[in-house]
Design goal:
2 copies of one chain form a homodimer.
Chain A (H helix, E strand, L loop, with lengths): L2 H12 L4 E6 L5 E5 L2 E4 L5 H12 L4 E3 L6 E6 L4 E5 L3 H12 L3 E5 L15 E3 L3 H8 L5 E5 L4 H12 L5 E4 L3 H13 L9 E2 L11 H16 L3
Parallel strand pairs in A: 6-7, 6-9, 7-8, 9-10, 10-11
Antiparallel strand pairs in A: 1-2, 1-5, 2-3, 4-5
Helix pairs in contact in A: 3-7, 4-5
């Protein structure tokens, strides 16, 4: 590997960013893929980039075909992240379950009475406003965003940030009536084209209605999207 | 309510058995449904019994129609139970997640090195053999049975007990090859007709492969069966 590429890879991994090292098998020419950025001299088309993103999301290194011939994509994934907006009852079940399933979990809720370490032991909790928190955290293709606060003042800014990011999952709690209003507001904000990315009603339809049962349905749907081929 | 019926209901609930009190709305005549037993003087057909079982499973009281006219079924469900055979890695994630989702969880593993309180904090663990444990616990229509030990000496007796019971969910870990062998053994044991009740491969197909991800897929499938209409 060229020294410059190697150093860049080390720097990205030190910064906890996921990268994929792509090697053309015919001659060993390599590029580093970081988000949408390609560092190096292989020409990757949109299809290859999509395939690389998919592989990185499920952390599956392997060979892919391209007009450049066979490429080997070595994924260096980071732990997937889940950003949950609203420190509500569902969150009290979802946060520990997601942590158990390998996610770095961040709970965002500026309402200090809700966002306490006692209610959410072992999870990162921040009382920043969602737009500030999400800008600081940075939503990459390994991040899932779930809004559960039931308050548009908190949920909407998070959804706007998520819809403008490559995060792999967006889910929003709320009845179909609530969601219709949300769609209207986000359409007004110019995000109409991206709205189908929102999973609403949130979670797989398993039938349960308790907060913990909804948490299971959300986590199951997040995993399903993570591994979607 | 007649005194005898009331006393029987109290006794059943004290014994932690789920019951449904069915009242004919036209005249207030009542029966108590306990598993397949009907105590009282209403004539309930197989369809009503099935509907009552379904309602009890998801703890949804409500009105049902019958040849006797409208009936009101008041469900007194117990906490659903999950019996997990094998104190393996998946169990270490599944047991606490299921407990969080409202299940009374019992882990059965006679291998004392596996079935320790340290590996499974906050969960009932027994080192009885599965057939003894399951006979003692009693598998009712509110119970899910999941075999994860990978050892037919442990899994098979549990599956045999489960297949002979009205438990609402049966899931067994193992590749399709492992399951084919299991099907052959259980067919030899005379259980061919009941084998379609076993969910194998176990869990919803979410794509994840880590123990905790499999735990989420199993719990999601158990909830889906619990609320199946």
């Amino acid at each position: 590997m060229k020294a410059a590429l190697f150093e860049r890879m080390l720097a990205e991994r030190a910064a906890k960013r996921a990268v994929t090292l792509v090697t053309r098998l015919a001659d060993g020419v390599q590029v580093l893929v970081i988000g949408d950025e390609v560092v190096g001299e292989l020409d990757l088309g949109p299809e290859q980039m999509e395939e690389i993103r998919r592989r990185l999301r499920s952390d599956k290194s392997g060979v892919l075909e391209s007009s450049e011939g066979a490429l080997f994509a070595r994924c260096y994934a980071q732990a997937p992240r889940m950003v949950i907006v609203g420190a509500v009852h569902i969150t009290q079940a979802l946060a520990p379950m997601a942590a158990m399933a390998g996610f770095e979990v961040v709970v965002v809720d500026p309402r200090r009475a809700f966002a306490t370490a006692e209610r959410l032991p072992g999870v990162t909790v921040t009382t920043e406003w969602p737009d500030e928190a999400l800008a600081r955290i940075g939503l990459d293709a390994q991040t899932a965003v779930v809004t559960l606060s039931h308050d548009p003042k908190l949920d909407d800014p998070a959804l706007i940030a998520a819809l403008q990011s490559p995060c792999f999952y967006i889910g929003a709690l709320g009845s179909s009536r609530t969601h219709a209003k949300r769609v209207a507001r986000l359409t007004e904000a110019g995000l109409a084209a991206a709205l189908p990315r929102i999973h609403a009603p949130v979670g797989l339809d398993l039938g349960g209605r308790s907060p913990a049962e909804i948490a299971v349905s959300v986590l199951a749907q997040v995993l399903q999207e993570k591994y979607r081929t």
